[in-house]
Amino acid sequence: MAELGAAPRVPIPAFDAVPVYPRTVHASQRREAILAAVFARGTVLTRDLAAQLNVSEVTIRNDFEALEKQGRVARVHGGVTMSEVPLMGFAARSGQNVEAKQRISAAAARLISDGSTIILDSGTTIFELARQLPTVSDLVVLTPGINIALALMEVSGVHVRLLGGRVAPGIAATVGSARQQGIEGEIAHLAFLGAGAIDADHDVVEGSLDIAESKRTLAGTARRRVLLADSTKWFTFDRHKVMNVADFDTVITDDAMPESTREAIRATGTELIVA
Fold it and tell me: Helices in 123-258 by DSSP H: which ranges?
């Protein structure tokens, strides 16, 4: 017998049985049922859960949204899956592919000139670019990267502005809408963006929806978009699309990039710089 005042647990049998639950099932019970299904199967579909729990697909999507905000699940096309592995810490990522990142950053630094406004995304390759900025005058740097802002705040000739929004754990950066970050209506000459991963369709992807959306906002603020990504980022996978490589004006990578991939990038009309 359940405790007085406690709601009975909602079991999740196999979907082929398709049991029907009463419409009076509480939201907390539905979400417990959703999590049980995700843990058991890895990925579950909206339509299956709607039929099983006897609610609309809109209700299930609202449950998905609530669970995603809690970090319990990750949205995929048509359903949800288990939440992504937490982002690797900034310090750990800084020690990976150091030489390639240094060469990529040096090539990127040559694109920066006096009197310009640039956006520096967060990430370890972008942080290396901040360390290699050329000697310039009247350079305005807009950045969500907390480490980047700290590194540049005393540099002569550089006016740095740390963007607002919510601090995202694990990446040492802020995320948010254009208004939240304080760049609504701003125009930058150049935006330098990093990538969590680049998949087989040449989409730049991230493990967090907030990060992906913030990167798109930064890209949309600039007249020229430059992607900095070492060769190990290519043909890897994550869940949330930022934009396609073809939507960048310039891609800078290292010389370990296969020739076939170089040709595919050039075929889109995007400038490719191999450092």
Answer: 124-131, 146-152, 178-181, 209-220
- Residue 142: is it exposed, middle or buried by C-beta count within 10 angstroms (0-12/13-18/19+)? buried
What pLDDT digit, counting tens, does each position of 175-228 carry?
999 999 999 999 999 999 999 889 888 999 998 889 999 999 999 999 999 999
The residue among 269, 265, 225, 260 whose CA lies nearest residue 111 is: 225
Q: Kindly give the pairing relationship between strand 139-143 and strand 271-274.
A: unpaired
Residue with tokens 């900025």: 133
- Strand 203-206 vs strand 197-198: parallel, antiparallel, or unpaired? antiparallel
CA atoms within 13 Å, Cβ hemisphere of 198? 22
Cβ(227)–Cβ(245) below 8 Å: yes
φ, ψ of residue 130 in degrees (nearest 5): -60, -35
Domains recognised in the chain with CATH numbers? 15-82 (1.10.10.10), 90-274 (3.40.50.1360)
The candidate with the shortest Cα–Cα distance to 104, out of 254, 223, 224, is 254
d(CA 238, CA 175): 18
This prediction's pTM: 0.67
Q: Point out which residues pair with 271 in neighbouring strands.
A: 250
